[in-house]
Amino acid sequence: MTDLELKKLKDDLWHAADVLRSGAHLAANKYGQPILGLIFLRYADILYKQHKEEILAEYEKLKGSRREKTLKEIAFEKCGFYLPEEAYYDHINDAPDDAKKAVLVKEAMEAYNGTMNSDQCLKF
Hints:
It is built from five helices and no strands. Helix 2 (about 30-60) packs across helix 3. The protein has one domain. By secondary structure, the chain is mainly alpha-helical. The longest helix is centred in the middle third of the chain and has 31 residues, at about 30-60. The radius of gyration is 16 Å and the shape is elongated. The protein is about 65% helix and about 0% strand.
């Protein structure tokens, strides 16, 4: 990651933190959880998108065959987890500033957890 990309990420995260805090009417000691969720989703998004083309290619290759697998199954094989589109960082980041971004983060984390087995889930 270049210095410019790192600065943009930092600026985006601080902006998101301010929007989450103000939009959710949370006290400073209460918005850590959505912020950590957002940071986790950003990391998961980057990692998942590194494998996304490979996942989609295998899905298309196996589609309609006896060995057909779901996107979720292939994603677990390729990168260890499946990230539904509503949990993509861009889905939250690109939402208008007046959107309840804290709610979007919570829904994204719930969608992510919904893809996991109960022993794999992160509790949010």
